[in-house]
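does this look right to u?? 2-phosphoglycolic acid version
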Amino acid sequence: MDNINLSLRNLQMKDAIKSVRGMEILDSRGNPTVRVFVELADGTAVSASVPSGASTGENEAIELRDGDMGRYLGKGVLQAVSNVNAIIAPALLGMAASGQVAVDRRMLELDGTANKSKLGANAILGVSMAVARAAARSMGLPLYRYLGGSGARRIPVPAMNIINGGAHADNSVDIQEFMAVPVGAPSFGEGLRYIAETFHTLKKLLKARRLATSVGDEGGFAPNLESNEAVMEIIMAAIEKAGYSPGKDIAISLDSAASSFSPDLTSTYDLSRSGAGKMSTADLIAMGVEWVNKYPIVSWEDPLAEHDWEGFREFTRQVGGRVDVVGDDIFVTNTRYIARGIAEKTANSVLIKLNQIGTVSESIDAVRMCRDAGWRYFISHRSGETEDTFLADFAVAMDGGQLKTGSASRSERIAKYNRLLEIEQELGGAALYYW
Ligand code: PGA
Ligand code: ZN
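got this back:
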């Protein structure tokens, strides 16, 4: 009875949560994912959709999949949806949407596990994102301003993934992502133009060499090049042919996603897809250092596998003064692993993926930990995405100046770029843009 009275009283608050409802939708790979609708007492009604990774870290929060082989090859998310509707929704009724931390903590309590395996990080994150969006809408604020405050005005420099390999493509390239970063552009809009033009020029160069111009999961081309280094060479050529200066206008960012070519989690790496064969941690570091000396690389994510903390640390020791060494699978947006990385100098930057940890407020905690340590952070999409643009606002709100959200193709990627163009226009002269 008391609970009902409390809920009724709270419903008089403008931003009291009135209803929460989940449904199963499809992501950009055609796999099921969760969308959550939230309604507030003042009539605000919004939704948010959850992304999904392919080269996932071992310690990521658990994405709940039904495992019913009769539906979507076992990938259905009806259980996660049911957890939203039957467990999370009644518990959040009457809570203030603006109380993001309280809402997220309530869901953590309901889940009760360390990795969100009971309710599913996909269920929890969908609600967490939708609640944030509802609070912003109810206050009449754009999401980036609600999450980032009145000073939020830095548009991130995009790292555009122009060649896909590894787990995101079926080609001969081991390294998962080769990204073009418009470090020398005067604004986000101009930077986006630089790299979109480079992407189109790259397509011409690939065509001229009779290589495939079909795209991978994140929208970059996925050609069968003769080696990983041949990718670097053709990207350099594309940047120049597009009229830009490599290193000055456009730099390179890489994501090896090295865990995916160290499947048995030993320090032997298998780069046989490209013909490079087996490599040790030391070989991989030597190759990385050589590339950093030879090419204008500004950041390198997961250069070693997630279990290879020592290799990571050694790579950082050798190139960390010049390059952002970014931990993705090794830190999984989790302050527990980020804290260890900071203490051990394992890297100097962190990739932030909301669904790796599973709530908006814990993602913000991870960002805060990076800032406090003087580490940089990249806000990132997943290889399975939706048309939701939450990420674009989140990146502006987090003020870190770096974002990974795919290529100049595939609408689920472009939607985020277009949202950033809108934000830049809205900010006008107040917008900041720098690497
Ligand atoms: P994922 O890849 O979304 O497939 O995990 C992205 C990344 O590794 O950064
Ligand atoms: Zn990664």
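The CA atoms of residues 221 and 278 lie 25 Å apart. idk if thats expected tbh
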